[in-house]
Design a protein that fits this description.
The chain is mainly alpha-helical. The chain contains 47 helices and seven strands.
Length: about 900
């Protein structure tokens, strides 16, 4: 990123991306600016009620930063930013305004792919900011308007991953729901509250002298308002108004009641026409003279605005051209309440006229908001029908689904374009009941021939895949087979992938491979990365099931590099490949590279993933936490998986979470907890509903293996050998070699527990050799319950291929408890805790002996990017050597 250039964004859209013009009466907050300037804190949090000068202080701080050559990005948050997609769109607009860089156009693939996931765009934006060598200061104003958890989670990740030479300044009326403890503990957080923001007597004197207030009145106002800036402003207006010094009598303290009293004094002291304008224009939020003329049905708005500005009535311009304005939030809240009390009947017509003007001038988001406020559902539906699909293409799923949900169903049903957008939005937002309702209406419509309609076919297939309807998906694919010649290439490829997915679950690998070949044949000519990435993943799943980990990993690495080259690192294509690749890396015991993928892709997979992807990545992430001694974090992830299942109505997610909690309890020596968790996950009706289908996530971790594991770990394995052997033979016959291998390993331990040592050793050595040939480790290491004597007696322990695997089996898995060693605090260097996620990933791989080239390969980054991160690591840890940096970070508990 280059240094900021002059903004080319004008008007209402650009107004949020630069601070308003400072009023002539503004007081320089020199002591606060000095405090912030001397601080090394990365985050400055300015938290105080309305009217304490938060925005003014940030404006002054922004000028100070710019004078020091620091690039600044300014975002005035609004209520509509309470969806992550919309918030990211706003932040990108602010970045574009600051740097003059174009924002990448959204993907225009078929909407059913969700190829532009909002979490992927979030990850991409954080990475772009973090890699900037030039220091950047990010300003976020009015953050109290944000209540959406996904936006706060994004800000938390932004704070964690931004480098220390960047600064973040947040202004909010309320304490933000951010985990600030670590930043505070290590001096990386500077907090300013209302006590610091109050005007000193000297500042009050400077401020009020500019408004022709006498010395005696200044002293009285300082005493009565306790230096509350907004109250001082309102009081100055009241004192200069019709009541003069009598206005001071009721002022006592800095409270909401004082502000309301003063606002009332100011409003009642205005001439009738101006009072009317103040009340009615406040309803609009942000406005210009033309909008006011149209919405308020008058022709003098330009003159009225100019007079209000001259009277210092807390009206400020919000754009460089001083065309758009808004009232100070404290005054605006009061005006809107009074308008609702006095003129309730005028609100809907006013909003309707505002909707007409804003839609005619291209402000579609504002127009929809006004139309909904006017309860003009027909107009709002027309506006949404014209823009909803574009919003989905740009990743704004949640706010589109929310806006459509506010409309009566009849208004949605009678507009085909809006109905389709509603169905897509409901699917992407995981509101599956609503999606089914919309799809039923689409398919019943006589005028829509859905059999050959690519969008509807894609929608139906994705819906069945995301809702775990595997048997229904196969039937749908069979029904579509005869009509496939009518489909476009993308949909034909999608249908072939769906067929492969079903055959894979049935263990029909040859048929699955044929379907994948058809998918590639359809989609290679159009370079449809989304479909081709799924094809690669299903092909790799077959290789993995066959026990060919190296081949599966190579397939996925090629697909991942292709997705990155196609701009899909954090898109839907990159996320699905990352999930399967993480499974391969975990199986091969490449845990640090696996952890990097989990760190980068978990939020994206939660947004876009199918049930198998969610289960696999949560299971891997939980086990990585347990292996590192972070048992509570692992349990939290499993609870999260169960909650996602409950929210989306996906019972398999909830059951799989319980099965994995049973595993975790066994590793914590909590056998009773393991039994309870297994009972909760043994949903017979659920598992029976899949019939002959074996979903990928349960290939080596299903309810049967969970039961056998419990009996093995609790010493009740004497009678399990016939059961294990029968299931293993079925797996062998079906070509499910990885599953057969896990069962063979459990069989060896069951034989050992039963005293059948010779058979146990033979089974163990056979399993070890087969695993070593296939490059598999965790299929064994995660099921080592009684392996020590088997390792000691192993006849293959000197085989070069088996050394690493047997060493892993010799090392006991750490007890998975919250009391395990965790995050040893930085005795050596406090800076270690401020390492970003990517820097921690790199240091872990350095500690394992990785070269820059190998680390770049493992993390799918360029060597130049690795070197950029290393320079920052050296600066933070005070060293110029790779190995010494890793040693310092390890000693400090950062890795």
């Amino acid at each position: 990123m280059s240094l900021p250039q002059a903004s080319h964004t004008t008007g209402l859209r650009g107004a949020r991306f630069s601070p308003p013009r400072a009023p002539a009466t503004m007081v320089e907050r020199a002591h606060l600016l000095g405090l912030i300037g001397e601080s090394v804190a990365q985050l400055t949090l300015i938290c105080a009620p309305a009217g304490f000068g938060k925005s003014t202080l940030m404006q002054q701080l922004r000028r100070r930063f710019q004078a020091r050559g620091i690039a600044t990005v300014w975002l005035l948050v609004e209520r509509a930013d309470n969806q992550l997609g919309r918030f990211l769109q706003s932040l990108k607009g602010a970045i574009q305004t600051a740097f003059g860089e174009p924002v990448a156009s959204p993907s225009m693939e078929t909407p059913a792919t969700n190829a532009n996931p909002v979490q992927g765009r979030a990850a991409d934006l954080i990475e772009r900011l973090s890699l900037s060598d030039a220091p950047i200061a990010l300003f976020f104003d009015d953050l109290e308007l944000i209540v959406d958890e996904s936006v706060w989670a994004f800000l938390q990740r932004l704070l964690a991953d931004l480098d220390m030479h960047h600064r973040v300044v947040l202004a909010s009326r309320t304490k933000p729901p951010l985990a600030l403890g670590r930043l505070r503990a290590y001096g990386q957080l500077l907090e300013l509250d209302q006590a610091e923001l109050r005007f000193t007597p000297e500042e009050t004197q400077t401020f009020l002298e500019r408004q022709n207030i006498g010395v005696a009145a200044i002293r009285a106002l300082q005493q009565h308002t306790e230096g509350w800036p907004a109250a001082l402003q309102l009081a100055a207006i009241a004192v200069n108004g019709r009541y003069g010094s009598d206005a001071l009598r009721a002022i006592s303290g800095a409270s909401a009641s004082v502000a309301e009293y003063l606002a009332q004094e100011v409003l009642d002291g205005r001439p009738g026409p101006q009072r009317d304008f103040l009340l009615r224009s406040a309803v609009l939020g942000q406005f210009c003279a033309e909008l006011c003329d149209a919405a308020l049905e008058r022709g003098d708005s330009n003159e009225m605005i100019a007079q209000i500005v001259r009277d210092n009535l807390l009206l400020v311009p919000i754009d460089a051209e001083e065309r758009w304005y808004r009232y100070h939030p404290l005054f605006a809240d009061f005006l809107r309440v009074r308008m609702a009390q006095e003129r309730q009947g005028e609100l809907q017509p006013l909003h309707r006229r505002a909707a007409c003007w804003t839609s005619a001038h291209g402000f579609m988001n504002e127009a929809i908001t006004h139309a909904l406020s006017a309860k003009d559902h027909m107009f709002a539906a027309d506006l949404l029908a014209a823009s909803a699909m574009d919003n989905l293409h740009s990743g704004r799923v949640a706010d589109t689904a929310h806006a459509i949900a506010l409309l009566p169903d009849a208004e949605v049903y009678r507009r085909p374009a809006l109905l389709r957008a509603a169905a897509f939005a409901a699917i992407f937002a995981h509101r599956y009941d609503a999606a089914r309702r919309y799809m039923d209406v689409i398919e019943r419509a006589d005028e829509v021939g859905t059999d050959g309609d690519d969008e509807i076919v894609a929608m139906r297939l994705m819906m069945l895949g995301w809702t775990d309807g595997i048997p229904d998906l196969l039937r749908a694919v069979d029904e579509l087979r005869n009509r496939s010649s009518h489909f476009g290439r993308f949909t034909a490829g999608l249908a072939s992938n769906a067929s492969a997915f079903c055959h894979l679950a049935l263990g029909r690998y040859d048929e699955a491979q044929r379907a994948l070949a058809q998918a590639r044949e359809a989609c290679e000519p159009i370079d449809a990365l989304y479909v081709l990435s799924y094809s690669a993943c299903f092909a790799a799943a077959i290789e993995l099931n066959l026990g060919q980990v190296a081949a599966a990993r190579a397939t996925l690495e090629r697909a991942f590099n292709r997705a990155i080259a196609g701009g899909e690192r954090y898109g839907g294509a990159g996320a699905v490949v990352a999930t399967y690749l993480a499974e391969c890396l975990y199986e091969a015991n490449a845990l640090d590279a696996c952890q990097a993928l989990v760190d980068d892709y978990m939020p994206i997979v939660i947004e876009t993933g199918m049930p198998d992807h969610l289960i696999v990545l949560h299971r891997i992430a939980a086990r990585l936490h347990f292996l590192r001694g972070h048992g509570d974090d692992g349990q939290s992830l499993l609870v999260q998986l169960g909650e996602i299942g409950a929210r989306r109505g996906l019972r398999r997610l909830t059951a799989a979470a319980w099965l994995e909690r049973s595993y975790a309890s066994l590793r914590s020596n909590n056998n009773e907890g393991a039994r309870r968790a297994l009972a909760a996950g043994s949903d017979a009706a659920l598992w029976d509903s899949f019939g002959a289908f074996n979903p990928h996530a349960g290939e080596i971790d299903d309810v049967m293996i969970a039961g056998l594991r419990l009996r093995q770990a609790t010493g009740d394995s004497n009678e399990t050998v016939p059961e294990i052997r029968a299931e293993r033979q079925r797996a062998e016959a079906a070509g499910r070699r990885r599953r057969a291998l896990r069962l063979l390993f459990l069989e060896a331990q069951a034989l050992e527990s039963g005293g059948r040592r010779r058979e146990a050793s033979a089974a163990f050595d056979e399993a070890v050799m087969r695993a070593a040939d296939g490059g598999m480790v965790r299929v064994f290491a995660d099921e080592s319950w009684a392996t020590e004597p088997l390792v000691v007696r192993s006849a293959v322990m000197r085989e070069p291929r088996t050394v690493g695997l047997l060493r892993e089996l010799k090392e006991p898995i750490a007890a998975m408890t919250t009391t395990a060693l965790r995050d040893r605090r930085a005795e050596v260097t406090g800076n270690a805790v401020r390492l970003t996620t990517r820097e921690v990933q790199i240091l872990r791989l350095i500690w394992k002996g990785g070269s820059n080239k190998a680390i770049a390969r493992d993390l799918f980054l360029t060597e130049n990017t690795i070197e950029t991160h290393l320079r920052r690591i050296y600066e933070k840890l005070g060293t110029r050597k790779r190995t010494q940096a890793a040693a310092i970070a390890r000693e400090a508990g950062a890795i």
